[in-house]
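Entry 12.
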Amino acid sequence: MRFFRMLGFVLLLAAIAAVAVAGPQRMLLPEWFGFLEIAPNIFAPEEMRPAERRRAVEIVEASEKVVAGFFGKQSPRPNIILCPDTACDDVFGDNGARGVAYGRRVVRLGDGGINLRIAAHELFHTALKAEVGEWRAAAGAVPAWFDEGLAVIVSRDDRFGVAVSKSVLADLKARSGWWLWGALVKEHGSRTAYSGARMLVADIEREIGRDGLLMLIERVRAGELFDMVLEDLSAG
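Predicted 3D structure (tokens):
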């Protein structure tokens, strides 16, 4: 009994610390920090003008349709945090990104990221994790290059169409954990890394088609290994 009391106390302290420190964990409960729910699961700072709020909601809804066009169904909407200018920095921390997805539960759209291209890219990430399963995704069941490359393709992001060397493509495949993606982007540059990821996925799509990509995701969700499923589908 004493152990469980101590465990409960430790968990309570951890929860208090999580709320007390600025960071993305606060985005699970944005209302606690003065953000308004302007549409289901879409949150904005009080100072965001009504016209900007309406436009942002329209962009999110259009982005969801883009993602649904790939999966063939509507994906669950995560908490979407709108961060124009520096509205989020003191509360959630300054990550310097126009858009970022945290697992399947949160998308943060920063300054310059409240647009169809960025929103669709980030919402694809959360949708993929919802499809594969959050724990399997966290364990690296889907390579980062596949996640990022398919997000570029689905969002129709034409910024990432440069040619990429075979050595860089090999590096993207060799360091496939999502936790290594930031280092790859820093080392090769964002345009090269994302273009390379797009090239790798585009090659797969040409071989197995969109239905094959969906089957790949479904079989990974069921517990099969990504590389083995891809080899099987390519051979078929």
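Annotation: The chain has two domains: 21-132, 140-236. The two ends are 57 Å apart (CA to CA).
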